[in-house]
Amino acid sequence: LQEKLSKIFKTITGQGRLTEKNINEAVRQVKLSLLEADVNYKVVKDFVENVKQKALGEEVLRSFTPDQQFIKIVRDELINIMGRANAPLELRHHPSVIMLVGLQGSGKTTTAGKLALHLRKQGRSPMLVAADTYRPAAIDQLEKLGKSINIPVFCGDRKNAIQIVKGALKAAQDLRCNVLVLDTAGRLHIDDEMMKELEDIKALTNPDEILMVIDAMVGQDAVNSALEFDRRLSLTGFIVTKLDGDARGGVILSISYVTGKPVKFIGVGEKLDALEPFYPDRIAGRILGMGDVLSLIEKAEKELDKEKMEATAKKLLQAQFTLEDFREQLRELKKLGPLSSVFEMLPGAPKIDVNASEKELKKIEAIINSMTAEERKNPRILNASRKLRIAKGSGTTVQDVNKLLKSYEQMRELMQRFKHGKLKLPFGL
Ligand code: GDP
Ligand code: MG
Asked: Which residues form a coiled coil (predicted)?
């Protein structure tokens, strides 16, 4: 997507404003990406409309090239829906109760085990409660899980979910467990009998958390079931499972959007340690299929030191850009540290490994030092025999010299483009 968006906006780079035409095209790409990621189509419709309004209304922040600005709008809107920070469990009662609900096969039983393990790692004393009497094997499954992590599992009479939960509340006191994780019965489809049972369990236990477990692979259907579970039970949040597979996670966006409730954890594997707190910003890129770009922009925003950038940029632009300037520039880029990744985002920027070791930089300096003043000013005169002399003099190879010259040429060209206003430095410089 990143590439496509860059292409769309390339034509207007430097124009200073997002235009309706290229925004429409960009919005279309975002729409396709979201649908591809299995985001519910109604949610997509609303979402892109929102993004479009924002993009049209906004001056190009001088700080970004238009494609990056557009991505920023999309990113901000995604985070708007999914929340900026991880929503933690809120456990207030003694003992606390976490009730897991959801359709059959969504991963409730597995997630119950994962959560119990997670809670114990946090210093709590969890108990698993096998309240799924709909499928006979479900109780055995939870018992086995509990045994494997050495966490008590309460099964009661194995017949009546309400009685089991009642018994568990008592047993928790005897065993000094301070948090109960309830595994409940699901169905293949939403069904009134199931809902009634869940409502009864809720009334009996007054849970601190009612988390719906949703399989990331279910796609479009997630919205309807999330809405119905939320309507009947007033969920406190979601756990989305099976994100270790191909699913891009569009389900997360859909359910957060329609219910306004947070995703608190994600399941990323069948093993019991494969549960992670959910961080919205990390999934945004995955949903849009553009990898690290979002986090890169975020990083740049955070670490931006305007004054430093400005001083460097001025220096760069005023210079004649001889090899000596180049050497100076490498030192400056190195000083920028992580910010230099912003530089690499510029179209046409040479791949300079600014994290290159001190040794690399020394090598470059050695090469430049071995040149005559004339050669430094006018590298074009460097023929094979001069290059050989320089390589020998600096203890490097002719390849090293050529590599340096190539980087220098690319950089010089880039500088020319800045000078002539064909390209804008990021961050309003
Ligand atoms: P329940 O019917 O809702 O209790 O679902 P289960 O806990 O029995 O899980 C159904 C299947 O999904 C099992 O084979 C689990 O191993 C699998 N599963 C659950 N969570 C995950 C996950 O995060 N990743 C993967 N790959 N598989 C999972
Ligand atoms: Mg189960």
From this structure: 290-374
